[in-house]
Amino acid sequence: MSQTLIPATILTGFLGSGKTTLLKRILHEAHGQKIAVIENEFGEENIDNDILVEESKEQIVQMSNGCICCTIREDLRATLSDLAAKKRKGELDFDRIVIETTGLADPGPVAQTFFMDDEIAESYLLDSILTLVDAKHADTQLDERQEARRQVGFADRMFLSKTDLTPAAEVDALIHRLKHMNPRAPIEKAHFGEVAIKDVLDLKGFNLNAKLEIDPEFLSADEHDHDHHHGHDHDHDHEHDEHCDHPHHHAHDDDVKSFVFRSDRAFNPAKLEDFLGAMVNIYGPRMLRYKGVLQVTGFDRKVIFQGVHQLMGSDVGPKWAEGEARTSKMVFIGIELPRDIFLQGLEQCLV
Predict the structure, then answer these.
(1) Closest Cα to residue 135, out of 170, 181, 179, 182?
(2) Looking at residue 50, what is its pLDDT?
(3) What is the pTM assigned to this prediction?
(4) In order of start, what are the domains of the chain with their CATH numbers?
């Protein structure tokens, strides 16, 4: 039976960052879209669900034990399954779901639920992970809590709240820090949850599409520091870009880091598959998000791969455009990943 998949958004963020405010806004603003919300029951920003249901005619599903995190992933699975069944039978009417996690949740297991469970995968399409960052307290939270750093690493888009209460120089330093942890997620400032719906829904963060946005500032910062030759006057025909731990950047050496691999040479598909498979087997739990748009020998089309932890998918994408530089680009975001092993290994997979 073919049916349209229900888009799902995971809303995560630091305690006090304004997730609830943003969620209320989405519910009230999404004109013509009916949204089912799965939210955690407790936490310092509990939604008064009487008001919520009454005001926006939404069906709110609350977990009996309050929390959607790894240990209780079964609950999330059961809730999603139940919602999809009710929608099919016409008992509930909604177009999409938003899962609000607790401030301390690791988004990884929540995201994996959409890929690992066949029944869920047949009903839902995970659209994106949104992370709210409280600009005022972010440095402390990032320093002290790995869950906060994971939420940044997993994000498809980040929203900074409380920037009006934070000195501009601190906000700039924070943005710099976040970009080095995750150069693929755009960062926007959000005042009191005022965010355009188009910036929240249908972001296609998990689609195998041929776009790999890497923040240009992330790449240019590395050029200055590493004196790499970019452009076409290659002394060597691949480059490695990575953030630097130079003290003038920031004093934080976060365990969530990112690095980029680029090459103008094509990959050998068998070697690449073996290598990535081995890396995912060993480092999967520490690999948060990774994606590549690749030139692979024997294909006249782009090859696209992406993954979350141990779950990796790939597909053949559009043809390389006439005159387009056939450069492979990959970005890896993870916890203490051995950058050199990855970069050297990838290089050995080139033709």
Answers:
(1) 170
(2) 42
(3) 0.83
(4) 6-199 (3.40.50.300), 255-349 (3.30.1220.10)
